Automatic annotation (TrEMBL), chain A:
Alphabetized SUPFAM superfamilies for the sequence: Cytochrome P450
Job of this protein: Cytochromes P450 are a group of heme-thiolate monooxygenases. They oxidize a variety of structurally unrelated compounds, including steroids, fatty acids, and xenobiotics.
Protein name (Swiss-Prot/TrEMBL): Cytochrome P450 107B1
Xref: CDD domains: CYP164-like (cd20625)
Region (Disordered): 54-74
GO terms of molecular function: heme binding; iron ion binding; monooxygenase activity; oxidoreductase activity, acting on paired donors, with incorporation or reduction of molecular oxygen
Keywords for this protein: Heme, Iron, Metal-binding, Monooxygenase, Oxidoreductase
UniProt keyword annotation of Cytoplasm present: no
TrEMBL record, chain B:
Keyword match Zinc: no
Gene Ontology MF terms: oxidoreductase activity, acting on NAD(P)H
Organism: Methylobacterium bullatum
Protein name in the entry: Putidaredoxin reductase CamA
GO cellular component: cytoplasm
Recorded coiled-coil stretches: none
Pfam families: Pyr_redox_2 (PF07992), Reductase_C (PF14759)
Lineage, top ranks: Bacteria, Pseudomonadati, Pseudomonadota, Alphaproteobacteria, Hyphomicrobiales
FAD/NAD(P)-binding domain span: 10-315
Named cofactor requirement(s): FAD
Keywords: FAD, Flavoprotein, Oxidoreductase
């Protein structure tokens, strides 16, 4: 395969189950120009460097300032849709400092020690309940029955979204998460769907935020909307508040599910480690860090070059789209010995499982304790779990990558400890 | 080198950060002989950065600063005993208790000490402090906890500024006196110095720049009560902190034939110490504050750096060197430091000395978070951040690459680049 088409292959669903050989090819050129003009950054050193480089931006240009690419598909469909999306609902994941910092700080202020601690305990109960439901099953779908409902319940409770409203978010969140996939806005149907979804979820959020204003509760949305009423810079206007709430909700729906499902896939493929985890639950934190390296929930993020950047023997021109191939940096043999081996005893894991730099995952502590609660309980309670499909079917996303279903055959579920 | 590392006696003089990391690196590199660490303080190695901050405000106890051993260290400790002499012909280190230690390899990591107040009688008044070691911090902490109303700090370098901020956090009345035009201006230039001045004024520090203390006066019991300034005015005080920089601990080397002086002990690119004729002694390396070495990034100009990260990196480099495991490459670690004052984190990479231009890059001084880049002869030589340290790695790369100044013209949160004069005051110390 031509080097300039490797990233095309990464996006191809045929390679979803194992994109890592493609990443190894890409790393032969740390910063590789693809035929469509995108620059793919695949080594640990180059990714680290660019994550801290002020010349890369997470923002999309407003339509008038965006240079024409000459490609009618990009100029008239893809980019206008991206612009609509980013300009009407710009959560801080798509913004640069100083706006990014202000909005992120307001969110971080809501992740209080008390709330996080309480939710940590709660997630153990949630997992126990979810597994109790499988007590008579001979098989179940780990994604639908555990990996999805756990983080969704956690983020809804943290934010203060009523549980009865949750089901409608399922579709919304999946649709909105496609904004992170580079090619998903390329057709009319997806474009229309995205805009409709934004309008629907915004309307819902506007209503919920009004409600929180009137009847504040001990949740993040009440906290943020309360702050927004105050003067002094920390607050945010309604548009930012809605965008932030949607971001947290989508992130809570679409990322941790992959962490739990990818982990379980790796563990069921390595029963000796699963058994070890059952008897040695203290292994979980290290095992999860290794998981975030070995098969992370988010494989890449895109950026744009504000000016030309000389890096690793390549010049990225001003205005170019950049793909930071985080999951490839995680397998860089220059940093990790025997990188394709899953080794929970690996020392000093500097992974990009939560990204890095100023956009480092705001919800990392939640993801860690949710994964810990789920994996330890699964290891201890599932009796002889086996994969029914190996590899399992994957969701379509190449950026947010994980199994769509992970069906496990089991000989029972042990009672909760 | 394996056989050479099987035996022998490595002596590390200086039991602080550079010495500890150097000793660990010797072991890591396979040195299996006898290893002795000599320290003039009675304590195992401890961490100094908290001593001017959390240890003064009482957030942590000065004793709670022990440095972790990163690697098992099978070593003999000679603590509470200073080295008093070096005989390179006999390969012996003399100790204050009369003992001698033979070495086949020696690491000099004796660091520096606080420069005392120039008048010994005044320096001896009760209530006059300097701050360098853990015992100094404990004494100063006790004095601050006793509830003095007014604290006078002489010298607005990093230690003076950090102590001033810590004392304000304790709600003491603080006067900070410095001969320069603004705090830290000697290192950071006048425009940044003015921002530091504004920071301290906002903290409530009575900052007096371009002012010197002429003398200190005590009461009948020998306790300091006031300072007389060079403009004739007086400042009543209950406590004085002398923060006039550091003196390098090289006196014990006098007569050894090494090229030592107030600037440190001179080393070659590899890290071996040099004698008066410029010949390296390959049994001896130096690291940390006390080592003066040609930095390749700065055209081989000898520098001695008082930075935490440098003590670690050069200590480890020297340890590998003495174990015969150095790669032969010159020690070229990027200089970097940080300081924390009044809730603001200041970080820096590179060296500002010799800068002839500077720009405010990311952020803005008005918002209290920004990056400043320094240039010399059209090249980028240093960068500094206020609460924006996340950008510094990018600038460190530019400095390492000797990129044209200013190195980054278009970027996130970057609004126009007006080139300014750093305006260093005439009188300047190195690093």
């Amino acid at each position: 395969m031509k080097a300039g088409r490797l990233f095309e292959a990464v996006k191809d669903e045929a390679n979803r189950a194992d994109p890592y050989p493609l990443y190894a090819r890409l790393r032969e050129t740390p910063v590789s120009r693809q035929d469509d003009g995108t620059y793919v950054v695949s080594t640990h050193a180059a990714i680290t460097s660019l994550l801290h480089d002020p010349r890369i931006s997470s923002e999309t240009l407003p339509p008038s300032e965006r240079p024409r690419t000459g490609n009618p598909l990009s100029d008239w469909i893809v980019n206008p849709v991206k612009d609509h999306v980013t300009n009407t609902h710009r959560p801080f994941i798509f913004r640069d400092p100083p706006d990014h910092d202000r909005l992120r700080m307001a969110v971080m202020g809501q992740f209080t020690h008390q709330r996080v601690h309480a939710m940590r305990g709660r997630s153990h109960d949630l997992v126990a309940d979810l597994l109790d439901k499988q007590s008579d099953a001979t098989s179940f779908d780990l994604v639908c029955d555990v990996a999805y409902p756990l983080p969704v319940t956690v983020i809804c409770e943290m934010l203060g979204v009523p549980p009865e409203d949750e089901p409608q978010f399922h579709g919304w969140a999946t649709q909105l998460a496609s904004a992170l996939e580079p090619d998903n806005l390329g057709n009319e149907e997806a474009r229309a769907k995205n805009i409709t979804t934004f309008d629907e979820i915004s309307t819902y959020m506007r209503g919920l935020i009004k409600e929180k204003h009137r009847h504040p509760q001990d949740d993040m949305l009440s906290g943020m909307s309360g702050e927004s009423g105050k003067d002094g810079g920390a607050g945010m206007g309604e548009v930012d508040l809605i965008a932030t709430a949607i971001l947290l909700l989508v992130a809570g729906h679409e990322t941790t599910v992959n962490l739990i499902a990818n982990s379980m896939l790796a563990l069921v493929r390595r029963p000796h480690i699963l058994t070890r985890l059952a008897g040695e639950p203290d292994l979980a934190p290290r095992l999860i860090e290794e998981m975030l390296r070995y098969d992370p929930p988010v494989h890449f993020r895109t950026r744009r070059a504000l000016s030309s950047i000389d890096i690793a023997g390549t010049t990225i021109p001003e205005g170019a789209d950049i793909v930071l191939l985080l999951a490839s940096g995680n397998r860089d043999p220059a940093v990790f010995r025997d990188p394709d081996r899953f080794d929970p005893d690996r020392p000093d894991i500097r992974h990009f499982g939560f990204g890095g730099g100023l956009h480092y995952c705001a919800g990392a502590p939640l993801a860690r304790f949710e994964a810990e609660a789920a994996l330890v309980a699964l290891a201890q309670r599932l009796v002889h779990p086996r994969l029914i499909d190996d590899p399992p079917p994957y969701r379509s996303g190449a950026a947010l990558r994980g199994p769509m279903h992970l069906r496990l055959a089991i000989d029972g579920v042990a009672p909760r400890r | 080198m394996t056989s050479r590392n099987a035996e022998g006696h490595a002596v590390v003089v200086g039991a602080s950060l550079a010495g500890l990391r150097g000793a660990e690196a010797l072991r890591q590199a396979g040195f299996a002989g006898r290893l002795t660490l000599v320290g003039d303080e009675p304590h195992r190695p401890y961490d100094r950065p908290p001593l001017s901050k959390a240890a003064l405000t009482g957030e942590i106890a000065p004793e709670a600063t022990a440095l972790p051993n990163l690697h098992a260290l099978d070593a003999e400790w000679r603590l509470g005993v200073a080295a008093t002499g070096l005989d390179r012909q006999a390969r012996e280190v003399r100790l204050a208790d009369g003992a001698t230690l033979s070495y086949d390899r020696l690491l000099i990591a004796t660091g520096s000490r606080a420069r005392p107040w120039s008048n010994p009688t005044e320096a001896g008044l009760a209530g006059v402090h300097t701050l360098r070691g853990r015992d100094d911090a404990a004494a100063l902490r006790r004095a601050l906890a006793a509830g003095p109303k007014r604290v006078l700090i002489i010298g607005a370098g990093f230690i003076g500024c950090e102590v001033a901020a810590s004392c304000r956090a304790l709600d003491r009345t603080v006067t900070l006196i410095d001969p320069g035009p603004a705090p830290l201006a000697r290192i950071l230039g006048q425009p940044v110095g003015e921002i530091v001045a504004a920071l301290h004024r906002a903290l409530g520090v009575d900052l007096r720049s371009r002012t010197k203390v002429a003398r200190l006066e005590g009461d009948a019991s020998g306790r300091v009560v006031r300072a007389i300034l060079d403009d004739g005015s007086e400042v009543e005080t209950d406590l004085v902190v002398v923060a006039l920089g550091a003196v390098r601990n090289t006196e014990w080397l006098s007569g050894s034939g090494l090229d030592d002086g107030p600037g440190g002990v001179l080393c070659d690119e590899a890290g071996y110490v040099l004698d008066m004729e410029g010949r390296p002694d390959r049994a001896i390396a130096a690291a940390g504050d006390v080592a003066r070495f040609p930095h390749p990034l700065y055209d081989g100009r000898p520098v001695a750096l008082e930075h935490w990260g440098h003590a670690v990196a050069q200590g480890e480099h020297a340890g590998r060197l003495l174990a015969g495991a150095a790669t032969g490459a010159a020690y070229a670690e990027m200089p970097a430091f940080w300081s924390s004052q009044g809730g603001v984190t200041i970080k820096s990479v590179g060296l500002t000395e010799g800068a002839d231009a500077m720009v405010f890059a990311q952020g803005s001084p008005k918002e209290g978070r920004f990056v400043v880049v320094y240039g010399a002869k059209g090249r980028c030589i240093a960068a500094l951040s206020f609460d924006s340290g996340r950008w510094l790695p990018a600038y460190a790369e530019q400095i390492a690459a000797r990129a044209p100044f200013p190195p980054i013209r278009v970027g996130v949160d970057l609004h126009g680049l007006a080139v300014l004069q750093p305006g260093f005051p005439e009188e300047r110390t190195s690093s």
